[in-house]
C-alpha cells in the first residue's frame, strides 16, 4: 500500500476550513435562526415571524417616577407578549436603588431572560410631565427602541398609572390586519381655550437643565400663534407607526426639529408635538386615525388629569371598546378584576395568550411553576377574546372610508 505524506500546513489549513464551515452551519441553524438552545430554557422560539398573516410587533415605552417601580413591573406583566419589545424608564424622582431593583427584577424573571425583549434605562434624568422634558424623554425612548431593534411596527406610550383592558392577543389580532403606516393620534385644530393658555403662554421647564424634577414657571409676556405651520392639539397618549416615529426621531425634514424648539417653551407639548407634525406633513397626513384607543373619565368641568378609575367604572370601561384605561391608583381592586376576567393573569404572572403552554414540568413530571405561562409555545399565533372583538369593531368603524377621511387633520 502506498502512503502519502501530508504537509502539516495542509493539515492546519484543513482544520481551519472545517471549523469555519462548522461555525457557519451552527450559526445558520441555531444562532441567528428562529431557535436557540441552552440548559435553562430548552428550545425557545425567540424571533417573531413577520409578514402577511402574522401579528405585528409593538414597542412599548413605559415611564414612571419615584415609588412607581412596582407599578411599572405589574403593568409590564399585564401588557407582556414575547413578540413585543419593552423599554422601562424611571425619572429622576426615583432613587438609584429603585432603578437597580427594577432592573434586577427584570433579570430575575425566567421569561424575560429567555426572550430578551425587556430593557431598562439605566441612567435617569429629570422629567416634568407638564413640560418639554416629558417630550424629550419620549423621543429618547423611541430612539433607543429604534436602535435596539427596528423590526417593530408600532410605538405605544404608557405611564405607570395606565392598565390594559384588552389582552395582548386581542391587540395583536386587531392590528394584524391593519396597514402598518397608520397612526392613532387624537387631534384637532380647534384650539379653543388652549390657544391662550397653552400655545401663546411662554413657560420654562427647569427639568431640561437640572438633575432633579422641577415644576414649570411662566414668563410674563405671551407670544403670537405661529403662522409657519398649523397647530393641532389632542391627547398626549399615542400609538405611532414605525415610519412616523423614525420621521420624528431621524427626520430629513426640518419641521420636527423646528417644532421641538418651539415646544420647548410650551406647557403640555405632548398634546401638540406629534399632532402638529403629522398634520403638517403631506407624507403622513392621511395615515392618521383620530382616536387614542384610551378610556378616561373626566370631572365636570375637566381638570388637568382624568379621574381615578375604580370598581364602579368596571362595566363601562370594559364595554368602551378601548384598549387601555387610565388613571388607576396602585393596587386598586379593579386591577385584580381586570387581571382575572380580561387578562387571565395570575398575581405574579404575565397576561395569558395563545403562546402560553401551561405549567412548567421537570422530566419526572413534577410541577416547577404552576403559572399558565410558565412554558411557551408558538409566539406567532394569537387567539383573541371578547374584548378583542369589541376593539376590532371600534377600529373598523374608525377606518370606514367616510369616517376616516372626515376626521383626518381638518383645519377649522
From TrEMBL:
Any GO CC annotation of this UniProt entry: membrane
UniProt main location, coarse: membrane
Membrane-spanning residues: 6-25
Pfam families: Branch
One of the record's GO molecular function terms: glucuronosyltransferase activity
Keywords: Glycoprotein, Glycosyltransferase, Membrane, Transferase, Transmembrane, Transmembrane helix
Cellular localization per UniProt: Membrane
Protein's membrane topology: Single-pass type II membrane protein
Protein name (database record): Uncharacterized protein
Originating organism: Acorus calamus
